Amino acid sequence: MFIGRTRELNELTRIYNSNKFEFAVIYGRRRVGKTAIISEFIKDKENIFFTGVESNEKQNLENFSKAIFESTSNTPADTIFSSFQSALDYTFKISENKRLILVIDEYPYVARSSKSLASTLQLLIDKYKDNSKLFIILCGSSMSYMEDNVLSYKAPLYGRRTAQFKIEPFEFLEACKYFSNFSDEDKAIAYGIVGGTPQYLLQINDKISIEQNIKNIYLNTTSAIYEEPTNLLKQEVREPAIYNAVISAIATGYSKLSEISSKIGENTSVCSIYIKNLISLGIIKKENPYGETSSRKTIYSISDNMFRFWYRFIPENISIISRGASDLAYNRIKPCISDYMGEVFEEICKQYLWSLLLKGEENFIDLGRWWGTNPKKKTQEEIDIMGITDKNTALFCECKWKNQDIDTSVLEKLIERGEIFSYPNKRYYLFSKTGFTSGCVDMANNLGNIKLVSYKDMIKI
Question: What global pTM score does this model have?
Answer without folding.
Answer: 0.92
